[in-house]
Amino acid sequence: MTAQTEAAQAPDLLYSEAEEDLRSAVRSLLADRADAPAVIAGIESDTPYDLRLWESLAAGIGAAGLLVPEKLGGQGATHREAAVVLEELGRSVAPAPYLTSAVVATEILLALGAGDGPVAGLLAELAAGHKVAVLALPFSTPPADGAAAMTGTLERTVTGVAEAEAADVLLVPTADGLYAVETGGDGVVVQALVPLDLTRPLATVTLSGAAGTLLADAGPAAVAVSKGLLAGAGLLASEQLGLAEWCLTETVRHTRERHQFNRPVGSFQSLKHRMAQLWLEVVSARAAARNAADALATGSPDAPLAVAVAQAYCSRVAVNAAEECVQLHGGIGMTWEHPAHLYLKRAKADSIAYGTAGRHRETVAGLVELPAP
């Protein structure tokens, strides 16, 4: 392999001008509609989701259709752009069904490869922000279990489905294939749970006598569900990156402004070392998350490995960054009014979403070929 070929295959970890423009638009919207007081007020209410925020994000900016081709009403972008959106959502921990609907559900429908019919119709509605769809599997389901999910019948109860309350459509995997079930139809009960992370609600979904539209047979559906879970796990790393970046930035700002013994507490050597170590971890997490997003965007055969590496690393970094943020804020970090607890809860919940770090390390071990002794 020549050096030129190797360079051509190297992942692009930098952000393009278009991606930075998208970041600016999303960050401006979230600063206006989903600052810390607004998010806390939302989770204290019965409806954590701001429907106007979702309409602006999904339809106004067009974020919901980033992965959908233009011929189906989307933006025709890639996972790289979707990763930028998730970085900003991680920075604000805004309650929005973006990961579950605009990434996982959309990726599943795209993988079915239908140019028309109910799949194309549902994709167009998701891209326009008119509907929200979620996969009716526990939020903890790893990509490797996608095929195993194709069991049972449409009569089922699933616990721990993320953002099912916000969904208009459930994608239900069965032994017969993948069904689309309207949440407002007869025989569908969505019962809210009390999750650790109140910004991403979980629910128990019970289907009893519900009618569904068959989207694909079991074989193609199993492949599609696995691809959707892989995309979800890969881009979840970008959400964890944004979360960790906010925690680091906020902690540095606070320790600069907080004085003790007439000195900023951030000037103490022990805290300098802790924040420097955290900065190194966040930089490494950015490389891992961007590599996963680029691998998904380019359809790289190494995408499963890139996603497993990103999740195995980024979940730990996000939790550590949130814990440091709470601790280095002192007493104020323990209060409900300060948003640090939102980031810690999101980081903890994300650490078991789409597979734990341990499960992803097992995937890495199975994919990496060690040289013979």
Query: Which structural class do you get from the secondary structure elements?
Result: alpha+beta
**Which oligomeric state applies?**
single chain
Summed up, the helix count is 12
CA radius of gyration is 21 Å
Mean pLDDT: 92
Low-pLDDT runs of 5+ residues are 1-8
Strand order of the largest sheet: 1-3-4-7
Annotation, overall tally of beta strands: 9
Compressed to H and E, one letter per element, the order equals: HHHHHHHEEEEEEEHEEHHHH
Strand content: 5-15%
Main pleated sheet: 4 strands, mixed
Q: Cα distance, first to last residue?
A: 24 Å
Can you put this structure into words, describing what you see?
The protein has helices at residues 3-9, 17-33, 36-43, 51-60, 79-92, 98-111, 117-127, 218-257, 269-298, 303-328, 340-350, 357-367; strands at 133-135, 156-162, 169-173, 177-182, 188-192, 202-207, 213-217, 259-260, 263-264. The strands form 3 sheets. A 4-stranded mixed sheet has the order 1-3-4-7. The chain has 373 residues and is α+β, with helices and mostly antiparallel strands. The longest helix has 40 residues, at 218-257. A hairpin with a 2-residue loop joins strand 8 (259-260) and strand 9.
